[in-house]
Amino acid sequence: MTDSSAAGAPAPRVGLIMGSDSDWPVMKPAAEALAEFGVPFEVGVVSAHRTPQRMLDYARGAAERGVQTIIAGAGGAAHLPGMVAAATPLPVIGVPVPLKYLDGMDSLLSIVQMPSGVPVATVSIGGGRNAGLLAIRILGASDPHLRGEMSEFQADLEAIVLEKDEKLRK
Ligand code: RP5
């Protein structure tokens, strides 16, 4: 597990985990979004199927270590987000990673169709960046500074669209 924060910096607030290092291209935009907002996070490979004990240890220990939200990406039989959600009281955001077959529908359905009582907030197939942004919004609910940063980010998005609209009309 690598920690984005420098020595002496605050502990990770977001846990960014994935079933395999092959998921990294999809998950990297989540890390980039967190870095853009200055949110400390940790990154690691935690596999529901290949390292089940590590997964349980991670999920059960995350809150005590100060992690406030977990982003979990997986592909195919993507059980990681759901199993982590079963073993932690923290909010879990699931990222369906598209693999070679089925266009990522297998990953999406494996993550989104959770039983009542165990929620996973599922983003779109390949939606790593939105997972990072959603984690920031979750933290922002109790962090006015971060919430302000998110409002500014949204204002920037709006300005970009309006600028494009103006160009198109010329
Ligand atoms: C899943 O199996 C991982 O999340 C990954 O998307 C998929 C394939 O893993 P590798 O065989 O590339 O390691 O558990």
TrEMBL record:
Catalysed reaction equations from the record: 5-carboxyamino-1-(5-phospho-D-ribosyl)imidazole + H(+) = 5-amino-1-(5-phospho-D-ribosyl)imidazole-4-carboxylate
PurE domain: residues covered: 12-161
Span of the signal peptide: none
Taxonomic superkingdom: Bacteria
UniProt pathway annotation: Purine metabolism; IMP biosynthesis via de novo pathway; 5-amino-1-(5-phospho-D-ribosyl)imidazole-4-carboxylate from 5-amino-1-(5-phospho-D-ribosyl)imidazole (N5-CAIR route): step 2/2
Main enzyme class: isomerase
Entry EC no(s): 5.4.99.18
Keywords in alphabetical order: Isomerase, Purine biosynthesis
Binding annotation for substrate: 20, 23, 50
Function, in words: Catalyzes the conversion of N5-carboxyaminoimidazole ribonucleotide (N5-CAIR) to 4-carboxy-5-aminoimidazole ribonucleotide (CAIR).
Family statement drawn from the similarity comment of this UniProt entry: Belongs to the AIR carboxylase family. Class I subfamily.
Name of the protein described by the UniProt record: N5-carboxyaminoimidazole ribonucleotide mutase
Organism of derivation: Gordonia caeni
Native organism taxonomy: Bacteria, Bacillati, Actinomycetota, Actinomycetes, Mycobacteriales
Gene: purE
